Amino acid sequence: ILAQAILDGVVTAWPPYTPSSLAAMDQTEKSFQKQDAVFIGSKRLLGKKSKKAMRYWRNVGLGFPTPKEAKEGNFVDKKCPFTGNVSIRGAILKGMVISTKMKRTIVIRRNYLHYIKKFNRFEKRHSNLPVHCSPAFEPKEGDIVTAGQCRPLAKTVRFNVLKVDKNQIFGSARKQFALF
User: Fold this and answer.
1) Which of 50, 78, 94, 106 has a 20 to 30 Å separation from 165 between CA atoms?
2) Span 55-85, pLDDT tens digits
3) Among residues 165, 166, 24, 148, which one has the least CA distance to residue 79?
């Protein structure tokens, strides 16, 4: 009966969500996306319809400002340090973005010098570090990223992007050696 009603045009939208509840969060996944800290079914809001959707965001501290996109955006990311359930503690690292091919995860390259005692010289070395990147940031290859340590988010991901400085390198930034 319901399928026939949809075909006849009687039922226009299914499931029966109000436009304001759908506009509150980006629904790009199969499961319904919502922030854990925001209660959607509040009975107090039934009488008054507010245009501005409720959004949870916080300051991570350590002198890092909360991005405007985290305060005003529609994305849902439970691993974001600004809008999710992740605290930043431990090391703060800088690196250059070399890959943005994964979903919400980037790979940064950390360059360092290793001292060889026998030759009294340094050699160049690097290490790659997978870092969770909130949708509040849109880094490109070559950008300098500041990442903070957090709890394990995946098998290899233990850091979260806190700040993105735009690219200062021209050409391919993949194998450039620069200390910052």
Assistant:
1) 78
2) 888 999 899 999 999 988 888 888 999 998 9
3) 148
Q: Return the exposure string of 53-81: e unless at least 16 CB atoms fall within 10 Å of the residue's CB, then b.
A: eebebeebeeebeebebbeebebbbebbb
Contact criterion met (CB below 8 Å) for 153 and 130: no
Written as six digits, the tokens of 124 are 């160049």
Helices assigned H by DSSP within 49-157: 68-72
Separation in Å, CA 42 to CA 47, 56, 97: 11, 15, 42
Q: CA 147, CA 60: separation in Å to the nearest integer? A: 12
H-helix or E-strand spanning residue 22: helix 19-24
Q: Which long-range contacts (CB under 8 A, 24 or more apart) does 72-76 make?
A: 73/135, 73/136, 74/23, 74/24, 74/25, 74/26, 75/25, 75/26, 75/134, 75/135, 75/136, 76/25, 76/26, 76/33, 76/34, 76/35
How far apart are the C-alpha atoms of 164 and 172, rounded to whole Å? 18
